[in-house]
Amino acid sequence: MAELHVRSLLVTGANRGIGLGLVQHFLRMPNPPQWIFATCRDPKGQRAQELQNLASKHPNIIIIPLEVTDPTSIKAAAAKVGEHLGGSGLNLLINNAGIVKLNALDTETLEDMREIYTTNTVGPLLMAQAFLPLLKKAAQGSPGSGLSCSKAAIINMSSIGGSIASSFGWELMQITSYRCSKAALNMLSRCQSLAYKEHGILCVALHPGWVQTDMGSCAGHMPPLTVDDSVQGMLKVLSSLSEKDTGTFLDWEGNVIPW
Ligand code: NDP
């Protein structure tokens, strides 16, 4: 299996759940990244305490405020990341931040549909647009013609809940706004893969499994996977991705999920 050699990465929603787990696991790698841009919307808040503690011990973690629904915040974050990187590029953009509301189909509202689409779908679109120059730079700076996560990649944290073919978990949670936002995120991932392949950037939609986080547990059921198991699996998947995988929808074990 190929190894992940990521010099720089950015994770959105890095203060808790899967995002925090990703930061922790990248730190533990035999070759940890030189720069881990851990972004969250309220770095000084109570919910970022664990990330702050981690950053105080690891100078390669740079905490950056980022609200993924706010284009101004995204642009400011991209400028800050660019400053830190000097002349080099960003290898890995992980669009992890996301929200869900436990609505039934009949109780969905315009506001909830809009809020969830803006966060889960438009956020990753704007993030990729803003960080594209840095991702391109990373791709240009890496030798070889193939695609890989060590070179330059966008990982969109999707969900099997957005799979039109599987309708996973419908009996437990209808969450139509969430499902629609992730189905659209899958399409976005495919579009990004088509547009960015020529720039040397790999793009995938990744389902982390059903994971023990605030979101995973919000409907009152105990998810089967720990954050550690999910993240460990996803990093193994990321290390194995190549040109043939760009534009696919995979789960934390590397299985292809039907759209
Ligand atoms: P959590 O609810 O535990 O964490 C969500 C993270 O996203 C938090 O850091 C939160 O920040 C951040 N966030 C939410 N909205 C915004 C915003 N507008 N701007 C910036 N950050 C924001 O979720 P998980 O860790 O479980 O989920 C991570 C990703 O994995 C999501 O995209 C989710 O859809 C996906 N996923 C999760 C599954 C699971 O079982 N857990 C299953 C399938 C997919 P804050 O602390 O400020 O609220």
Automatic annotation (TrEMBL):
Coiled coil: none
Single GO term (MF): oxidoreductase activity
Pfam families to which the protein is assigned, alphabetical: adh_short (PF00106)
GO CC terms of this entry: cytoplasm
Top-rank taxon, per record: Eukaryota
Matches recorded under CDD domains: carb_red_sniffer_like_SDR_c
Protein name, UniProt field: C-factor-like
Taxonomic classification: Eukaryota, Metazoa, Chordata, Craniata, Vertebrata
